[in-house]
Amino acid sequence: LFSTGTLACILSKVNPSEKDIHQSPVRMAEGFIRKYAAQFQANLKGSKPDLDTRRIVFVSLSGLHASWRKCPLHLLYICILLLPVKQEWIQKPSKYRKELSSAITKDEAFIEFLQWKDSQKLLFSTLRDDEQLNDEEIKADDLVSPVWKKFNTALMALHDHIKGENYNGLMLDTTYLRKNNCYKKGKFCQHPSLIFAELFFATMKYNPVYEILYQSNPDSLRPTVFYGEYRATFIHVPNVLELNDLSNDAADEEAGTLDDGWHVSVDYINEMVNV
Fold first, then answer.
1. Whole-angstrom Cα distance, residue 200 to residue 60?
2. pTM
């Protein structure tokens, strides 16, 4: 991977007459890096180099907002955002202060960053809109949330710079997963019921999401809530009860609300800032 200086140099050679300049991901990257490179270099002064070249997948909007300025630009350039946001929110943030929070809508640099990632087609919404599924997605496991189906399609179309080929698809065949106990000995989540709940409802609970992403591409993807985190599990995830042993109301409370309005909590971030 290239350094911030090399990245800026490469982008500076782009022909300024390029068509559709305002929509070009390269142009947006060039503008962003020119504007904020000095600030990022100051933020990273004295910090150890990040030698992990896996592609980061940010899965928390609040975690990303709290930590992205500490992330090297070359990692931000290729990172994936899997977040509870909609495209119209980041294009007109002043209209969506309630959805995004005032802290985010007032952060001009962060909004520009989200817009840049959207132009790269590397920002994926976890909000369950009624999106049109393609034929292959329709044929896939009916129990799996469209959120995971759509992300899976996009992931398999992305180039894995570590392996030199496209990324593996997510493990979404729930019949196969149950039959073979594929998630019984997970790295981040050892409770298959929570992983299946995540696949079905796309609640974006941290540990199950980490496990789903890790199992698909363990050597290439780096699921992240807060850049710089050093723990495999999260201090705010409660002791887990098997969902099958709970009533419906209790299951919702234990696993996190499962409705469309669910967003990740900032409580974890408040405790991780000083780690």
1. 19
2. 0.72
